[in-house]
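Ticket reopened. Same input as before:
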Amino acid sequence: MAENGRKILLAVDEGDESMYALTWCLKNVISENSKDTLILCYAKPPRAVHTAMEGTVWAFSPDVMESLERYSNDVAQCVIEKAKRACKHLNDVKVETVVEHGDPRDMICEVAEKLKVDLLVMGSHGYGLIKRAFLGSVSNHCAQNAKCPVLIVKKPKPKGGNGKH
Amino acid sequence: MAENGRKILLAVDEGDESMYALTWCLKNVISENSKDTLILCYAKPPRAVHTAMEGTVWAFSPDVMESLERYSNDVAQCVIEKAKRACKHLNDVKVETVVEHGDPRDMICEVAEKLKVDLLVMGSHGYGLIKRAFLGSVSNHCAQNAKCPVLIVKKPKPKGGNGKH
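Engineering reply: fixed in the latest deploy. New output:
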């Protein structure tokens, strides 16, 4: 690895694929003694998605909205903590986190652009079955719309895949 | 870079984007003293594309077909040689080449699978304006269909991009 001091944005979510992408990235892209910055980024669902899921914007009382908000904060924290634990061995690599509400497709591309990252890494689907049904494949969208290089890491299927992992 | 001895497939074509992807990959993914294998892969257009371009399968005489074949061989050689020159400084990295006729979308995914590569790297569009119009975006297809991790490298637009490159 010739380059150092790069900014690498890693989109994490609740799924196994994003943890696999992180592990792969730590093995293959970021050396533990590099001066890279790894930015873990998690998109909490926009409130509109909570409501759109029921098809009725008026269906939830403020109490329910609040507990959904609390739930999504808990999930966010859990995902970010798990990702950070996987990065513990990185000596000189700075690990930062970005957690924001928003459609992950837009949010990830916007963060990538705003922070001028050198590389965006993500799992191949992302953002869970339910959200994916609403939002389409996050990785497809980002591969087409992010302005930086995009690395899409696929979790090999148990029966074969690419062998080594 | 913790890993070594990986197989990295780089899809090259006539365009600037694929040369940029190669340069980016050499800076960011492959260290010059690693034991990685870099496989440069180029898809020559299938004969059907030559003919489909005119909409008439019977339009070309064998002579014309032969000169098209010779032309596509020349282009292939030129592209591969240029890519190899960019890899000259790699000491221990093995550089191999694969040149085959075929729809690049399928050919690249098939080569990736057959050779059990650890990573597929490509430019963000690939395969020239004319072929792209016929075949759709090669990188989109591969990002969705290749079984290995896929790195799509975009050439920054001159007026901005991601700054560093």
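Chain B touches chain A at residues 1-3, 6, 24, 26-29, 31-32, 116-119, 124, 137, 139-140, 143-144, 146-154, 156-157, 161-165 (CB under 8 Å). Chain B has a mean pLDDT of 82. Please confirm and we'll close it.
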